[in-house]
Amino acid sequence: MTPMPTQLTGAQFLAARHRALLADEPRVGKTGAAIIAADMVLAKNIDVVTTASGRAVWRRGFATWSKLSRTVGIVGVDKNAADCDVRIFSYNGATNFNNLRTNDLVILDESHNCKNPEAKRTEAILGKALAGGSRLLNAASFVKPETRAWFLTGTPLSHDPSDIWTTMRSSCPDRLLANDTYGWPDVTKFEDFRHRYCIVRMKKISHFNKIPVVIGGRNEAELHRRLDGFFLRRTQKDIGIRPSVYELFPLIVSPAVRKQVDGDVSKAAILQAAENNDTKGLEMALGPLRRLTGNIKAQAVAEAVKEEFENGLNKIVLMYWHKEVGDILQAKLEKFNPLRIDGSTPTADREQFELAFRNNTENRVMLGQIQAAGEAVDFSSANELWFVETSFTPKDQAQAAMRITNVNQTQNTFVRVCCIEGSIDEALQASLLRLWTAINGVIK
Amino acid sequence: MISITFQLDETQDLKPQIQRALAALGFDTVTYTAPIQIVAAMPAPVEENETPVAEAPAKRGRKPKDVAVVAHAPAPQVVDLEVNEQDKIDEYVEVEQTRDKLTHDDVRDYVGQYTKKFGIVAAQKNIPTILGCAIADFPDDQVALQKAIFQIQAAMLGDQMQKELDTNFFDTFDEPEVAPEREITEQDVRDALMLYAKKYDADEKMPNTLIDGPDILKKTFGPTVTALRLMPKDPESLRKAYNAINDAIENNWYNRKVQQ
């Protein structure tokens, strides 16, 4: 895989620093940049802490981007993962892991997950803040004082400026000290930091209890100067409009569920049928397993979508095949006000839903049945489309993907095909993806 | 007579201008020598596909379908091998010049090759020494990046050459390997005693051997070992006994008269 120039500069930025924050917008290529940088510093023992849905993406990322041979394991999923060169953790997994290894590098993906100084995960990963933050107990944490650590997030201040304190306290405490030249106060302690850079009001939550609530920011320019040189941020605009990215999105499920998905079917026969575009053969071979796989994926996808929204994604289109899968997604993502178009949707409603998805910020999810919503609608207000399930007909897939990759699109687009990692579904989806992306490659 | 005039920019390289002008007329390759002299061959006569149908006399009734007539384009007639070679060189230079610039990723490629060969731990130790700095610290200029790649290549090649030397060169002058010694069995010791008897005894009763044999064993293992059955049977002891008997045969420890 050839890296984008912005990924190379991002990698150089990280590799040149012991601690750094890469704050590129989502989908600018932080994962690739960090892995390239890990190669550049010749890191062998690496711990990656990421979201639950990001774990398999990082495993795939190392296979795609790294030029160095390292063993990669997901802790809590793979046997002997703890002995691998690259250990991938979810934030919850890292919180409960007794980390004794000295690493060459720790990568915190979506590092805003460690923004709360009192959270267990923050203490386990960055260290426990004592005396309001004047001391940091981090000898047993993932990010030890001598450990090289890079923070990746598209939303470093996900709520307010105080969100960056934990990162600065663990990685650049000298930037929190007083500076007489500029007249900056010492903000090493969390409360000092928060009151310096946030407008805080006490909110009464009962007759006897009040809590501090941040209602705005202040001294932003000062904080920006304190951070100068520690972070790098590029936007989608910086990388320019690039061809659509089509990729697999592996989902992790338990071995028992994976076995259920694989069933007793002949893997060779299924892949052969996919290669030969033998739609009927595929349907015959997979039978009810297809529906079961869809239902399992829908659960995992709903969780992954929630994480993506937390990490800065604005809107998403989810394509499915079975009605049941649409039902699961609609129920699980209810709080994002999903709109849904399937075969039973009246034409008038289709137009209204399309308009609502384009104009209403609160409608963040569009659920579309591949055949019913695969043509004559425009979802280009989203730049990300996931196939929760796929059609066995490449033409349907290609058409559905064009709901976001059309001429109205002004952002970079990402089409991801969800699959269950390590199952026959992954091999099948990879095979189908090759077929229908070839169609889009020709008729784009 | 048709006269064709080209207008060339004398301040620019003439060759590509001429080639472009001729290519526009259908002449792909030309020979020229200094002073520039264009020798453009007359186009070859158009060859028509000889098909019996096409040449057959017209018949009554339905007209025969049009048969595709393949007209060969005028083939370039003048081919100069030297020019072709030069073209190849020019093309190569052009490709090299227009090739994407080297980036830190190219250096990473070679580091990847190094680690595949020697492992990451060796790379962690050696690459900063080879390059003189970390990969990311290399300035983003072509000479520096090219130099970094050469250095890594040289390190890999140097190691390869060292290995070659170690295996192919120095091995030649090493002392030949000594074959591992054969393990001595109890039977070998008995056979050695028989040889002793054959050399120093005149008859089958082996009087000298019956006296000297136990003495050899006593001298080798101590006073308590006077017979083979009393001797330790480990390989080292068997070898000691075997060597002692052979030495006795060789050096005639007991000044016996040699019978054979």
Describe the structure.
The complex is a heterodimer of chains A (444) and B (260). The mean pLDDT of chain A is 90. In chain A, helix 15 (347-359) links the parallel strand 14 (339-341) and strand 15 (365-369). The longest helix of chain A has 22 residues, at 289-310. Chain A contains 17 helices and 17 strands. Chain A has helices at residues 5-15, 30-40, 55-65, 91-95, 120-125, 165-171, 190-197, 220-227, 236-239, 255-262, 267-275, 279-286, 289-310, 323-332, 347-359, 394-401, 424-443, and strands at residues 19-22, 46-50, 72-74, 86-90, 105-109, 128-130, 135-137, 149-152, 198-204, 210-217, 231-232, 245-251, 316-320, 339-341, 365-369, 384-387, 414-420. With 444 residues, chain A is of the alpha/beta class. Chain A has a 7-stranded parallel sheet with strand order 3-4-2-5-8-1-11. The longest helix of chain B has 32 residues, at 142-173. Chain B is built from 9 helices and no strands. Chain B has helices spanning 14-25, 52-55, 81-98, 104-118, 120-131, 142-173, 186-200, 207-221, 235-251. In chain B, helix 4 packs parallel to helix 6 (142-173).
Q: Which sequence of SSEs, written as H and E, runs from N to C of chain B? A: HHHHHHHHH
Distance between the termini of chain A: 21 Å
Strand content of chain B: under 5%
Oligomer: heterodimer
Structural class by secondary-structure content of chain B:
mainly alpha
User: How are the strands of the biggest sheet of chain A laid out side by side?
Assistant: 3-4-2-5-8-1-11
Please give the largest β-sheet of chain B.
none
* Secondary structure category of chain A: alpha/beta
Percent in helix of chain B: 40-55%
The total of beta strands of chain A comes to 17
- The number of helical runs of chain A is 17
Helix content range of chain A? 25-40%
